[in-house]
Amino acid sequence: MPRHLLRVILWMTGALLSFSVMAVSIRELGGTLNVIEILTVRAALGLAIIGTVLATRPQLRVTIVRRKLGLHVLRNTLHFGAQYLWAWSLLLLPLATVFSLEFTMPAWTILLAALILGERLTPSRVGAIVLGLIGVAVILRPGVEAFQPAALIVLGAAFGFAAQNIATKKLTMTESTIAIVFWMNVTQFNIGAIGAGLFFFNKIELYQLPAVAGMGLAGLSAHFCLGNAFRAGDASVVVPLDFLRIPLIALVGWWFYGEALDMFVFLGAGIIISGLLWNLHTEAWRPIAPEVLTGTFPDKTGSGRF
To answer: To 10 degrees, what angle do helices 123-140 and 95-102 make?
Structure first.
């Protein structure tokens, strides 16, 4: 397997595990904090962690620039809104249902990537999306639950995530991963502080501190891994890999919360994985542009290698 695809798979593995930890942490905090408060805690912890990293590694501070500040703010506002809807839905629906409905997002991402980034709609990429959506339908077996009002919340979040994925890919062409994550936490902490204030932290119980730490670390690592995955490959390659979140979170929901787990989850996961394997096999034989292989992009900003 080509090294750039291996890098995509490794970074996406980290992102998938991080998103699962974050979902469980939100569930644990949901009885005490509202959604905006939870997201503000996540951003505050992210800022603390990234601030420590920047304080100890001054060479990284030079990458924190403001040349794309408008795009950073747009990307992070879209993501905050989508994250709000996603976190809200986690408190209303089973984990597997939320993650499955969220995967209408790759279809939007493929189309937006073609329209905005000029990425090609190859047969294997379209096939991975089609098989992914079929797998989601098998898992959901559309019925009463799938059409609850809460399901519409997840669908709104999915479109928001797709839009922020495109903005992330645009930013990786000129911005470092550390800069993307830094501006994400700065923007979202300020949005959250305006909406929630800063006096809610005393509501957190001692037993919830592991969930707080898990959400902060996972929220940061998820976007660090996702940013590097987008840097290593096209959005149309990275996003279908995210389908693996569905069987993973189904197992988490079953293990921690006793949520129903049946053969349709695994049947749907098998369909999803078959599409992924087809796309990965095709991508392995597709000629790769030099900037993808080296991690450099021909821009005039002097940003060079990340």
So the answer is: 150
Contact 89, 154 (CB under 8 A): yes
CA distances from 256 to 45, 106, 141, 165 (A): 24, 27, 23, 30
Q: Is 304 left (phi over 0), alpha (psi -120 to 50) or beta?
A: left
What pTM was computed for the model?
Answer: 0.72
Q: For 149-197, how does the pLDDT look when each residue is reduced to its tens digit (9 = 90+)?
A: 777 898 899 889 989 988 988 888 888 888 998 999 999 999 988 887 7
Flag whether 179 is in a domain.
yes
Cα 233 from Cα 295, distance rounded (Å): 10
Q: How many domains does the chain have?
A: 1
- Token readout for 140 is 């959901």
Cβ contact 85:152 at 8 Å: no
Tell me if 226 is assigned to some domain: yes
Find out whether 296 and 305 touch, Cβ atoms under 8 Å. yes
Of 22, 24, 1, 17, the C-alpha closest to 256 is 24
The HSE-up count of residue 99 (CA atoms within 13 Å, CB side) is 26
- Amino acid (one-letter) located at 247: P
Q: Domain for residue 280, yes or no?
A: no
**Does 300 fall in a domain?**
no
Range of the domain at 77: 3-122+142-246
Tokens standing for residue 172:
């990786």
